[in-house]
């Protein structure tokens, strides 16, 4: 397996992750080749350059696309959401996802196999702690996912989304203290704790290894609605 990972501003965190993955490989698992690529997904040119770099580093385009990068500045009330924040959420979460799929698809269609996974959010279903700008961008991703799934199945390509909520140890939710008094407060989560990035990865792995699953948005919320 080979991995092409992206970052926008968090090079240090990505370097840490790559070191961890390289250690895993030395112990007999994990990815053989890992490349890192800087890209601001708000910039169309950066997305084009990203695909050229991936082709150079790996000699091919990706078989599996996980559109995980997301912009989620928390502004709960519409009255406080400036137009620029609405536009940025749409550009990073929805427009970039559209462009990533467009660039990844030709190679997947040609080889008759591909996996596309969008990282959406409980916000797309009306839940979560953020405002309607973020919810609209994630709901747009779900609509795009369902449309693409019906069109791409015959090419051996599945398209699904993961909709997490209250995942700790992330930029959005470093720990549970920032959720106190919000709808995402741990006291409101039926399983009584935050989710983990590893649990998100578990679901993405299941999606990628289950070719009969397509057009689905899988909620990973600890029972939170
Ligand atoms: N944490 C949760 O509870 C939760 C819940 C629902 C959905 N999600 C979704 O999960 C995904 C991952 O978020 P996270 O929770 O892991 O938060 P995070 O740690 O803040 O990760 C966000 C990621 O998006 C990247 N990103 C942001 N703006 C970007 C841009 N303009 N261009 C390229 N990359 C950009 C960031 O890159 P840099 O760090 O390099 O800048 C970072 O890797 C997002 O799509 C988010 O909406 C998370």
From TrEMBL:
Keywords: NADP, Oxidoreductase. This is 3-oxoacyl-[acyl-carrier protein] reductase. GO terms for biological process: fatty acid biosynthetic process. Pfam families: adh_short_C2. Gene3D superfamilies: NAD(P)-binding Rossmann-like Domain. Belongs to the short-chain dehydrogenases/reductases (SDR) family. InterPro entries: NAD(P)-bd_dom_sf (IPR036291), Sc_DH/Rdtase_CS (IPR020904), SDR_fam (IPR002347). GO terms for molecular function: oxidoreductase activity, acting on the CH-OH group of donors, NAD or NADP as acceptor; quinone binding. The keyword Oxidoreductase applies.
């Amino acid at each position: 397996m080979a991995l092409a990972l992206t970052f926008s501003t968090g090079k240090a965190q990505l370097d840490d992750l790559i070191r961890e993955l390289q250690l895993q490989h030395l112990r007999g698992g994990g990815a053989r080749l890992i490349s890192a690529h800087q890209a601001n997904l708000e910039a169309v040119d950066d997305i084009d350059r990203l695909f050229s770099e991936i082709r150079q580093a790996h000699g091919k385009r990706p078989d599996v696309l996980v559109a995980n990068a997301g912009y989620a500045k928390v502004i709960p009330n519409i009255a406080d959401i400036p137009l620029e924040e609405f536009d940025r959420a749409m550009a990073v979460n929805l427009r970039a996802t559209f462009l990533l799929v467009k660039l990844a698809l030709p190679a997947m269609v040609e080889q008759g196999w591909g996996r596309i996974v969008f990282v959406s959010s409980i916000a797309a279903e009306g839940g979560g702690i953020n405002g309607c700008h973020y919810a609209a961008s994630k709901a747009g991703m779900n609509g795009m996912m369902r449309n693409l799934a019906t069109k791409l199945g015959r090419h051996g390509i599945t398209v699904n989304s993961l909709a997490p909520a209250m995942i700790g140890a992330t930029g959005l939710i470093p720990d549970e203290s920032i959720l106190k008094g919000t709808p995402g407060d741990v006291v409101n989560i039926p399983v009584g704790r935050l989710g983990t990035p590893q649990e998100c990865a578990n679901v993405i792995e299941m999606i990628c290894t289950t070719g009969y699953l397509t057009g689905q948005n899988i909620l990973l919320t600890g029972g939170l609605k």
